[in-house]
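In this supplementary section we document a worked example of the pipeline. Step one takes a protein sequence of length 178 as its only input; no multiple sequence alignment statistics are reported here. Step two produces a three-dimensional model, which step three serialises into structure tokens for compact storage. The input and output of this example are shown verbatim.
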Amino acid sequence: MYPVCTHRAPNCRLVRAGEARRSAVALDVMASGTPIVGKTGGADVAFVGASWPLARFEASRKQITLRLSILGLRYALGPEDVTRLEVWGSIPFFRQGIRIRHVNPDLPRRIIFWSLGGAQKLLDEIRQTGFVPAARTGDTRVGVPVRLLTVVVGILLWNAAFALTAPLSSTTDRLTTG
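The serialised model returned by step three reads:
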């Protein structure tokens, strides 16, 4: 009998280190034989940050899932949605995560998962599940790549310039006419 899985996926069992294929890393396996990876950590999705342990990452051959438990958000990506999985981090060995580059226009562009342990190790475990990004690298989104903050600041500066010049022109007109 196999022990119960730690990530609570239905119909799964734990593959012991000696049984794992291509590596000594033990992966959870569903009853169908599909290996899956499950990690708890933190995530940065668009402008939302969820610190550890508020995010749950799972990967199988057919899908990558990221859940932000406190907000009730769930993002699921198939191989046809993902162009690349890469190590991403601002501070090496301290804050490294997995960045999911995808072409799904319904999902936020920035999806990063952080966990304890190495990001490269997690990438290797994802590869062991058989998940292979299959999307083309071209971005299918339409629109102008401008941040909203830049537009707001530009409008404020434009209006401020007119607001500052309006009182000056009316006072100089009175001085010249009178």
